[in-house]
Amino acid sequence: SGYVAYDQGYGNTGSCESEITYLDGEHGVLRHRGYPIEQLATHSDFVETAYLIIYGELPNVAKRKEFGLRLRKHAAIETQMQKILEGFPTSASPMAMLSAMVSALPAYYPDLATNDFEKDLKNFDRAAAVAISKVRSMVAMIYRYTHGLPYVFPKQDLPFCDNFLHMMFSEPYQEYERLPEVSKALNLLLLLHADHEQNCSTSTVRMVGSSAANLFASMSAGICALSGPLHGGANVAVMQMLQSIHDEGDDGTRFIAAAKSGNKSTRLMGFGHAVYRNFDPRAKIIGEACDTVLKRLGIDDPLLHIAKNLEQAALQDDYFISRKLYPNVDFYSGIIMRAIGIPMDMFTTMFAIGRSPGYIANWKEVASNPKGRIYRPRQVYVGATERNYVPIAERP
Ligand code: CMC
Q1: What ipTM goes with this model?
Q2: Residue 266 per-residue DSSP state
Q3: I need a surface site. Which of 151, 221, 326, 379 has the fewest CB within 10 A?
Q4: pLDDT at position 228 over 90
Q5: Angle at 160 between CA 339 and CA 28, to 5 degrees
């Protein structure tokens, strides 16, 4: 009954009011709580930007310290959770493992996940710290498990990103050698993913949260949404594409020609964006950072050369120009991750660590909105009109 406005994939529908992230796709503008992404990328780090996104203001010294301490306190993963992880074959998708572990968190923290907004909001500071800190530690644990390595426990005295690198790469008999360039690159990578308006996974978090589901349940659903190749999984698809171009001895020319067929299976991965129609400001920052990081680490990656060739060729090609297709954040993020030693199968889980502040801030907006209602879009029905039931024996 009644008229339903049709907007395929909600491309032009504002599903909520939000104070977190401003995105102008026509002009390539991205701001968190009013601060341009370029300034945050230059001056801030992941933890500070996470605080900003979640709480709305940059922290003063005392608040920054308090937030850092809360993150450190919740860095370790409960021993029993190992059983959840180890129930998976080591060949399973790390994103499936991550979402399962996050969806199990309410069982370990029932006081933070009551499914009653008022109660959950009272404990929000703790829940947010548990979510960010543990998603990071879970990713390291999943890496150790899937690669047949012993788990490494977090250290109390290490900053967030260094602690991650320690849990990933230290061995019981040998500490991982800390390089400031590497932790800087990781901070930048996570910061650039910290929030991005109503993307597929964040909208999923809000949708699940709108039913009064707790933060962890909502985030777990968001992580599933992030796993798809058109969203978070694109960073893996980009690297597979670059690797296959390299293996075939192509400089990218043949690939560009195939990408123009309009066939979804031969798309130039890491190009195009549902909202940015001019350029993706994150891609600009990360593209430049790629050069600096690889130079500082003394790495000459042939895949970076291929990526640059592809970018140059596409930016001069009518097909891409007329469709306003530019490199997105995923085009270069994989090359940075590869440079700091993160294997391709873990790329999308890295995106999940980065995006966790965005999920948390968006869930909080849903939970704190006194006028909020459950998300319940309508549809335009195009199926059969009314017809009468036919007994099975009489069916053709
Ligand atoms: N390579 C070749 N052609 C493309 C590409 C591409 N990467 N992206 C879009 N097109 C074409 C598309 O076929 C269509 O052509 P036509 O008008 O002739 O039918 C035209 O460009 C418009 O594209 P669209 O379908 O309106 O774009 P969309 O808004 O539906 O999709 C997208 C956006 C990001 C899913 C898509 O550009 C894509 O698949 N890109 C590759 C995957 C990717 O890099 N995803 C990461 C997104 S950024 C990180 C994140 O948010 O997760």
Answers
A1: 0.94
A2: G
A3: 379
A4: yes
A5: 65
